Amino acid sequence: MPKSTRSKSSWRSRRAGRSSRVLPGAVETITRPNQTWPIILLLTIWRWRWELACIAGLVYVWHWHLASIRIFFTDTLPTWFAVVLLIGILYWLIADTPVRRFLHNRTWCVITRHRVRACLIETRMLNYSGNLPFIVGCFATKTGQVVWLWMRPGLSVEKLENQAETLASACWARKATIARHKRNAALVRIDIDRRDPLANKTIDSPLLQDTSGMPEAAVADDAVLAFLTPDSAPQDSTTLPPAKTGSGETRTRTSKTKTTAAVNDGEAMILGANGEDVSDYV
After folding, report:
1. Which of 66, 157, 193, 272 could be 175's S-S partner, Cβ–Cβ 3.0 to 4.6 Å?
2. Cα distances (angstroms) measured from residue 185 to each of 113, 153, 156, 179, 253
């Protein structure tokens, strides 16, 4: 066999073996969105807007006001007053104040938004053009956060229906609920529940106020019977307006009422429509 033919055949066999080792089964193709640089830059700024705002604020304070702050705390104020002021500022940021709640909720909203996007990427929640759902915003609730998604063409809430547990795991939450908007199918709401507001609370019933200090035997025998007081017995008959007969005469109609129960010396007695005791038949 010529040398050139042997080399070509061996090269093809090595290439086939390498391809079979790399791709043993199916081939997964992940497309990238065809976007221009201005669009990518705007989306990046929108995604990292809170981080960029914090960095810009720190740079501004460090560059323009650091010298003034240093002079204010070292030369203008006494040492003890500066220490008390710093402790007050730390307490204002750490204690349960509106500022602390705002910072805590906003931090979790930023974390939740990034975690939801990472989960969407890992679960391949893409359309055929390679675009992810657009995260409109993340807002704080009493139980966690709510994330609003704008579904791109080719995506719907049906692809997210089975990803509730995956989203809850990715966001370090206890539960995630997915629902679409009532009027617009492109808007999808994801509720991230991190805490249960009723978990550490005891709901007291007002029905137990009269029996809270009584022993169990008295509650079982007497306390329940104390609430079962008999109703007032209705009248035996009620006079109705006179009814007209065919000959022009009038006659008085009476309607009999049934007395369902009467109490006599602690014993219950049931009366029929005609006043007869029917306790033995019931």
Report:
1. 193
2. 21, 11, 7, 10, 65
